[in-house]
């Protein structure tokens, strides 16, 4: 059994839904999984702008906030998820990634496996850039990114991680095809790390 840590930031609920898909898929496969969200002082006001996702607010707020980067130590796999903002991660996810600077010199995350996911308004390049930002972070921390195979079943995915196109109003919920891609990516990760 492998130990997974999933850390996400979500404003509209889409990135949370993907994180939850990972969490459930890992539990179904008998893996140890911890689910955290990044700190976000503006979460409540941002969430209320999206009527369709008010129902997710309580579920997101029930997920514990990760307090420090060191909480991921001891994990075999780290999975990060962020909304795409201008081809990059959100400020809240960037702040979490930046908190690893305290660990950088000693490199305790070297050799840890890594995967990532994002949601974006459209699929025209921005999500891939966001995923690349997270992969670059992982490489600087000595982690081993696990790419998404080109033949993964479900929604078509880039090699850098899992993406969900949520639409201009962030109102397109995660599809069954994306859920299938997450499950198949989890199976691929388990194969790689075994």
TrEMBL record:
<dbReference type="InterPro" id="IPR029039">
    <property type="entry name" value="Flavoprotein-like_sf"/>
</dbReference>
<dbReference type="GO" id="GO:0003955">
    <property type="term" value="F:NAD(P)H dehydrogenase (quinone) activity"/>
</dbReference>
<dbReference type="InterPro" id="IPR005025">
    <property type="entry name" value="FMN_Rdtase-like_dom"/>
</dbReference>
<dbReference type="InterPro" id="IPR008254">
    <property type="entry name" value="Flavodoxin/NO_synth"/>
</dbReference>
<feature type="domain" description="Flavodoxin-like">
    <location>
        <begin position="4"/>
        <end position="190"/>
    </location>
</feature>
<dbReference type="GO" id="GO:0010181">
    <property type="term" value="F:FMN binding"/>
</dbReference>
<protein>
    <submittedName>
        <fullName>NAD(P)H dehydrogenase (Quinone)</fullName>
    </submittedName>
</protein>
<dbReference type="GO" id="GO:0016020">
    <property type="term" value="C:membrane"/>
</dbReference>
<dbReference type="Pfam" id="PF03358">
    <property type="entry name" value="FMN_red"/>
</dbReference>
């Amino acid at each position: 059994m492998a130990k997974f840590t999933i850390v996400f930031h979500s404003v509209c609920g889409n990135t949370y839904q993907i994180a939850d898909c990972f969490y459930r898929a890992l539990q179904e496969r008998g893996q140890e999984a911890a689910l955290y969200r990044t700190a976000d002082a503006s979460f409540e006001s941002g969430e209320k702008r999206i009527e369709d996702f008010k129902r997710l607010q309580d579920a997101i707020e029930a997920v514990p906030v990760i307090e420090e980067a060191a909480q991921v130590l001891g994990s075999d796999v780290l999975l990060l998820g962020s909304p795409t903002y201008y081809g990059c991660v959100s400020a809240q996810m960037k702040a979490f990634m930046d908190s690893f600077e305290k660990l950088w010199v000693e490199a305790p995350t070297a050799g840890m496996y890594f995967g990532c996911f994002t949601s974006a308004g459209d699929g025209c390049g921005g999500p891939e850039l966001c995923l690349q930002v997270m992969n670059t972070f992982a490489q600087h921390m000595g982690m081993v990114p696990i790419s998404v195979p080109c033949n993964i079943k479900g929604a078509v995915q880039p090699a850098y991680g899992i993406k969900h196109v949520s639409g201009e109003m962030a109102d397109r919920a995660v599809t069954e095809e994306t859920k299938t891609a997450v499950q198949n990516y989890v199976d691929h990760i388990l194969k790689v790390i075994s």
